[in-house]
Amino acid sequence: xxxxxxxxxxxxxxxxxxxxxxxxGIELHVQxxxxxxxxxxxxxxxxxxxxxxxxxxxxxxxRVSAISFENxxxxxxxxxxxxxxxxxxxxxxxxxxxxxxxxxxRELLExxxxxxxxxxxxxxxxxxxxALEPDDLPPTADDADGSGAEEPLPPLTPLPPQLPxxxxxxxxxxxxxxxxxxxxxxxxxxxxxxxxxxxxxxxSLWLLEEFVAFEQELALVACxxxxxxxxxxxxxxxxxxxxxxxxxxxxxxxxxxxxARARNVAASLLAALDYVGVLSIEFFYGRSGLLINELAPRTxxxxxxxxxxxxxxxxxxxxxxxSGEPLxxxxxxxxxxxxxxxxxxxxxxxxxxxxxxxLEALSAARLHWYGKRLARPGRKLGHITLTLKASGAAxxxxxxxxxxxxxxxxxxxxxxxxx
Length: 419
Ligand code: ADP
Hints:
3 domains; Rossmann fold; 17 strands; about 30% helix; globular; binds adenosine-5'-diphosphate; about 425 residues; alpha+beta; Dna Ligase, domain 1; D-amino Acid Aminotransferase, Chain A, domain 1; 9-stranded antiparallel β-sheet
């Protein structure tokens, strides 16, 4: 393994990977469609092409010793010949097979007996009109009084979709592939909304799950190296606005038992998939204990705080693993951290110069501005990480609330867009 790695993708995750690679003296080359994409500015070189362009990935492979991905919505079948030709993907394509689709993720979790929300596929509730047996036919006048007059049969109409036993509204509908930041998730509150969904989407590509009344959303970034060593970052609390991550508090106010359970889940998953690289797990925590919401085979928004707060950031860790280095220390070097996403909130194209300046002036804080060309509302334009000093969970929560208010005074939330 050498000190030259490739990333398919050029967004903020690749940008932070490129920043980490620089710090480690490792070359990082990217494949991304636009030279204005965030990672293009920091990469050693850019293969300018759409992410699904295989000949471009081949060209990228010629420049590097191993390639990883910024995003999991991959066409693994198309990539397989490259792996057979000797291109090294980290994680391997086989390890990704159960992760590139939400439905396959749910099936994987069931196979491994790991807890996740109950679900069913949208397709499964679309019953075609039943083929009637002669015995099922309504009695005709002929049967009743022998008069021989024929009654017309009722037309065969599809039955309205019925929820499987044990399910009720509200439900959460999810696109099996391609969703992110709440795009591809919809709350379904009634039979009418269910029928509207069936009309609007391809049912073979959607699943529905129970709506979980969670008390907390938690997340864990874990990593595994080539030798099978596993380490986890601290469990964190994530807070969403309109189904998009708004802010993250590290470490989470969670019991040791919950943290241990989350780490066990991560270790089981990484070993079962023979996974090499950084992997993130989103959890719901509440009355039903810890449920796995989603797996992401990559660095994750819930782990951005590690840049300041941990001895090895999630990005430095991925760079180490892809370049064949042993794992770095995942422990925290701060008492706590608050990471706040900066989502575009203005409709006019603006560089937010005044707000950025004000954020940069906040004490014990570091602004990460991704430099995206399009700043449409709801888009992740940057994040800010604030150092927390409190050592107990209750005091940390109060300190985080105070610091969040400082950020909010400068940078408001975008208007809700929930459908
Ligand atoms: P995405 O892949 O777009 O990030 P997620 O599956 O992570 O979508 O869902 C986004 C958010 O929607 C979650 O963080 C959570 O707040 C909410 N959510 C998702 N699934 C459920 C569910 N089954 N019950 C309740 N809320 C949910």
